Amino acid sequence: MTVDPPLLVFKEKGEKQSYRVRIQVSDKKKLLGNKSKNMDSDFGQLVWTDGKHQEIYITDAERRIDLSSHIIKVFLTLKVENTGKTAASDILLAFPPTQVQHLAFIEALAVTGKRKKKSYVRLDVKPTELPDAPNGTKYFTISLITPLKSGDTATLEVLYIFTHSLEPFPVEISQSESQLVYYRDSALILSPYRIKQQITFIKTPSTKVESFTRVEPSNRAGTELKYGPFEDQPPYSFSPIIVHFENNNPFAVVEELVREVEISHWGSLQITEHYNLVHGGARHKGVFSRVDYQSRSFSGAYSFKQLLARLPPRVHSVYYRDEIGNISSSHLRTDSRKSELEIEPRYPLFGGWKATFVIGYVLPLQDFLFESSDGRRYLNFTFGCPLVETVVDKLTIKVVLPEGSKDPSAVVPFPVEQHLETKYSYLDIVGRTVVVLEKKNAVPVHNTPFQVYYTFNPIFMLAEPLMLASAFFLLFVACLAYLHVDLSIRK
Fold it and tell me: Which residues form the Subtilisin-like protease fibronectin type-III domain (predicted)?
């Protein structure tokens, strides 16, 4: 049942501005103040807006939510109109606080042209704070390239990605059961602006949907749920929904990944990756039967026994091992464009099970190290995790520069934490500078190139050969001296 009370209008003392409030809930208990720790109650109460953003009017909004894996992708298309008297230079996006903590990525594009002549321009998106945000609403500001003049319209396409947003229910299942999960959201798009017309599509990985909240108008066809179209919704409208469905896709989560990229000016790039992998789905209960797992196709349907890592082309000297030793159950496929490493842990991973392993490989230096116009050298490498469809809770990339490198700096296309360390290796005197980049909640879309710039005097390349030559020369002189010195005792 959907409760849709009338709009309420409040006025504070000394103010002429009216505050318009509207709530939409799908359960009477929520309307009566039923408390909950999740998002259902966060907006099942009065919310308000002060009208200062009402010069922007969303004429049409379409949202598509992809639940086909444990990494949730939301595609939002907005057609906005400036109904105010002054130009608008930015657009606000609003999120419930329970969603922001799982937000891994957000991107906005401005769309110009139609059909085949469409073009896209990337826009700057930054988190922002607004005073008196209703119910802890979090905001992001989309900065327009050119201000939107009064009466003008613009089309925006927004992509945002959530992690750890699917709740297994039941939280524990046996080897023979399928995994069911909850997804919580709103049938209405949370926005500080009035929306003339909106519609939401939710795609599930299979047709097995146990239940979903019905908000009129809504319907289901195959793997798709449809909410809307809804007409003329005021700011901050919210209608909680829950979708309970089957999802047996691998919930591969890397709790911590440390990637060490060591640069050698003698011609190679040595990569070492340390993984702490866990299955983030429903916890496994009962005993594990390998006989059932291998003989019955539906046994352990939500587990995974292999992962695919996409590596750069021309990779060689690949190894895959854990604390016990080398793991031979891996297959490497290479061509001129890419390399794919298929790895199998020593045992299949069920919910809550973990695996720790190391992947290492060598790449030709000339494919990744270049010289800039100002004479500095820079490494152009890929950020993120090579494993496909994997969430990384904590990612650390360590770029080990050659000894003698100075003035290091990193250029990353998204915010990361940076600091410097020093590492000592064989024949090092002053140590090697290490550029450390850290990011939490990394997803496959973060697998983009980044650069590390530094200055290097080529004379330092002679340091280690000279040290070795000097050592051999001293050893040779010592041997000659030993052979020509008579240490015998003469009578």
Answer: 2-54
